[in-house]
What we know:
Elements: H1 2-17, H2 25-31, H3 36-47, H4 51-69, H5 74-80, H6 86-97, E1 132-136, E2 139-149, H7 153-165, E3 177-184, E4 187-195, E5 207-211, E6 214-221, H8 226-237, E7 244-246, E8 250-256, E9 266-275
Helix pairs in contact: 1-2, 2-3, 3-8, 5-6
Amino acid sequence: MQDWIAGFQESIDFMERNLTEKLDIGKIAAKAALSPFYYQRIFGALCGMTVGDYIRARRMTLSAQELAATDARVIDIALKYGYDSPDSFTKAFLRFHGISPSKARENGARLRSIAPLHIKFSLEGGSMLDYRIVEKAPFTIVGIKRQFNSDTSYEEIPKFWEEWLAQGSSRPVKGTFGVCTDMKGKDFDYWIADLYFPWEDVPKGCGTRVIPGSLWAQFPCKIDTLQDTNTRIWSEWLPSLKGYTLAGDYDIEVYLPPEAGSGEMSVYIWVPLKKA
């Protein structure tokens, strides 16, 4: 666990050392020995913000300090922290601080500040997170996919499901799975899908994707606790995981119909693993 914490902290320190340079999520994630896909998911669960939001907040914090303490030109500070023009810098500055860069130099100007993150884990409570580890052969999904950005996915993916539900009986798939996969930088594909069998026709507008065979950690939850369970997987369960490491660049939500006599569907989060 200590090695895991040290690696994640090194990734944050790497960001801090390079705030005036172009930061690549692949290089950041590599400092924690994680893929960009998992790094961004874990960062959001641990820190309560996206990697992009954190970098922007730190740059806005430092740029405001320089404006208040030096006579450097606004354009020079803007370029230093990665903004192409004074206008784009001013808009970002207004959103973060609520005042313009020029106002930041006035006596008594109220500025916002976010300090560098320091990761620390502590055991609190003792509530249980149920799971089991199972092995599954490769399987194929069929469904519709859309590309999302990690900075806005928590808001946009539920809208994707709402659009799909609004199709009613004309929906091409039942929606057994919600699959995150194929991370490219901050962008990734999200599928609403079912299990696919090769003798079936692929519905119009749908595609297929093979999910590799793997060990899977399966976490039962409910619709209204899915986000909380997801957060606890990355912030509580993963740091204390022993004997296994994450595998692949994907994870899966599973939605099964209610069993006989039950009015509530069964919901799971599946996370692929491999033995350490």
